Backbone:
């Protein structure tokens, strides 16, 4: 994954001549990083491959530098600071304490996907201001998403899917101007999606499926424009959405949209004319409460549809001739 570059904080260095030598005072070193990693390691109880427990050892590690030989630890070019921890799919288990990572002032990527970690996402995570990538998917983390996650202004990728997270969707996501991917699917997160629409800015990929979001999607164009300008993938299936569909003025704004999945909700009413969505490839509206005729703009326009699922609704009219183009 290409990470958005950030400017690293320059360490102040003071040089003073002492006799014939030169004294050097450095305001930061790797000793805090080493301590943080060792504290974080204490939460790992099971490591079937021995990748972490066997390599994350104080012996042989320079306390003033980033431990570059430790599995999954990535150091910066100066070898002073940890910039990434990547421990995906190692079968690790344990209850993690995220406050142990606060000492990693330059950490940009925290990726623990596909393990069996448990624990809460604590509010102090909002102090990890250098984070750009946060991937905790496929674990057993529980509790609410802390509101202070919206203080991580450098985030461009967030994946908390397939956990046991509950509670309301935190506000303030409009502060995350760099965020491109938001994947929260398969949790028990709730919130009024109608009020969330205006929270998403510059996002390319949104997957909130298999949660407990409610409310309608029939917001006016002024509320969807910030999302519609950039988003390519939207999956809101298997929630409790209701109300009407996007209206004519709103749907045409989604000119970059490639996938729209709203299946298995309670969205009702008639569909808009759609017009031309030049990039739409997948449209899934199955198992809702939609009715009326299928818009000609959907079936006869220049949209490059490869998958269309309108089953489980109450549409009427003759479809076969129009569907020949899609099948």
Residues:
């Amino acid at each position: 994954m290409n990470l958005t570059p950030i400017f690293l904080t320059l360490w102040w260095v003071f040089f003073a001549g002492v006799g014939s030598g030169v004294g050097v005072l450095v305001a930061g070193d790797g000793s805090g990083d080493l301590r943080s990693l060792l504290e974080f390691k204490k939460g790992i109880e099971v490591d079937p491959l021995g990748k972490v427990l066997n390599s994350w050892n104080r012996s042989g590690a320079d306390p003033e530098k980033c431990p570059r030989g430790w599995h999954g630890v990535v150091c910066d070019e100066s070898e002073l600071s940890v910039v990434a921890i990547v421990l995906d799919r190692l079968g690790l288990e344990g209850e993690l304490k995220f406050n142990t990572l606060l000492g990693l002032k330059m950490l940009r990527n925290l990726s623990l996907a596909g393990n069996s970690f448990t624990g809460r996402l604590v509010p102090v995570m909002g102090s990890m201001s250098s984070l750009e990538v946060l991937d905790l998917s496929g674990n057993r983390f529980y509790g609410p998403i802390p509101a202070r996650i919206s203080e991580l202004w450098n985030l461009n990728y967030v994946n908390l899917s397939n956990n046991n997270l509950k509670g309301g969707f935190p506000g303030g996501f409009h502060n995350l101007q760099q965020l491109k991917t938001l994947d929260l699917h398969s949790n028990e997160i709730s919130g009024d999606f109608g009020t969330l629409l205006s929270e998403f800015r510059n996002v390319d990929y949104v997957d909130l499926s298999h949660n407990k979001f409610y409310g309608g999607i029939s917001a006016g164009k002024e509320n969807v424009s910030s999302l519609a300008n950039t988003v390519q993938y939207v999956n809101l299936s298997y929630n409790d959405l209701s109300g009407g569909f996007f209206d004519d003025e709103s749907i045409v704004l989604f000119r970059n949209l490639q996938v729209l999945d709203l299946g298995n909700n309670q969205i009702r009413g008639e569909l808009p004319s759609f017009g031309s969505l030049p990039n739409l490839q997948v449209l899934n509206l199955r198992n809702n409460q939609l009715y009326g005729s299928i818009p000609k703009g959907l079936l006869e326009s220049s949209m490059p549809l490869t998958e269309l699922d309108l089953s489980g609704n109450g549409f009427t009219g003759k479809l076969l001739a129009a569907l020949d183009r899609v099948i």
